[in-house]
Design brief:
By secondary structure, the chain is α+β, with helices and mostly antiparallel strands. It is 16% helix and 41% strand. The protein is globular and about 30 Å long. The mean pLDDT is 92.
C-alpha cells in the first residue's frame, strides 16, 4: 500500500500551492506533498515534501482529511494536513520538485489549471471546524 501526505497552508485567506513538475500533472497546481518514504511517518513525509516542493519549513497543526483509494493494482492512503509556514521564505526557482510556488485566494482557483480534487479539498477545509490535532492522530501499524 502506498502512503501519501499533503499540507494545506493558509495565510491571510490565501493558500500556498505548487505548480507540478511531474510528467503526469505537469503545469497543474496542487498542495505541496507526495509519497511518504518507507522509513518515514506520514508527518515526516509531509514536512520533507513541503521543504522540497515549496522551499519552506512547516509546522503541522491538524489532520483535515484522509482518503483511501483501492484501485485494481494498488491501494493508497492519503493524509491531508493543515500546516503553518515557519518564516516567510518560499522557493523562487523551478526545479525537479516544482515549477513554481505561489499564494492564491480561493476565488482565483476557478481560473487556474488545478490537479483534480484540489478545489474540493480546500472547500472541505473551509467548511469544517474541529480538526484532529496532529499529536492526536495516529496510524496504528500491525
Amino acid at each position: 500500500m502506498r502512503l501519501k501526505s499533503f499540507v494545506l497552508i493558509e495565510k491571510e485567506n490565501r493558500y500556498l500551492l505548487i505548480q507540478e513538475s511531474s510528467e503526469k500533472w505537469r503545469g497543474t497546481w496542487y498542495l505541496p506533498g507526495g509519497s511518504v518514504k518507507s522509513d518515514e511517518t506520514p508527518e515526516m513525509g509531509a514536512i520533507r515534501e513541503v521543504k522540497e516542493e515549496a522551499g519552506c519549513d512547516v509546522e503541522l497543526q491538524s489532520v483535515f482529511f484522509v482518503k483511501y483509494h483501492s484501485g485494481f493494482f494498488n491501494k493508497k492512503v492519503t493524509v491531508y494536513y493543515c500546516g503553518k509556514m515557519i518564516g516567510e521564505k518560499i522557493k523562487t526557482e523551478p526545479d525537479n520538485e516544482s515549477l513554481a510556488v505561489q499564494w492564491f485566494t480561493y476565488e482565483e482557483l476557478d481560473r487556474m489549471p488545478l490537479r483534480k480534487n484540489l478545489k474540493e479539498l480546500i472547500t472541505i477545509y473551509r467548511n469544517h471546524t474541529g480538526f484532529t490535532a496532529v499529536k492526536d492522530f495516529r496510524i496504528i501499524e500491525d
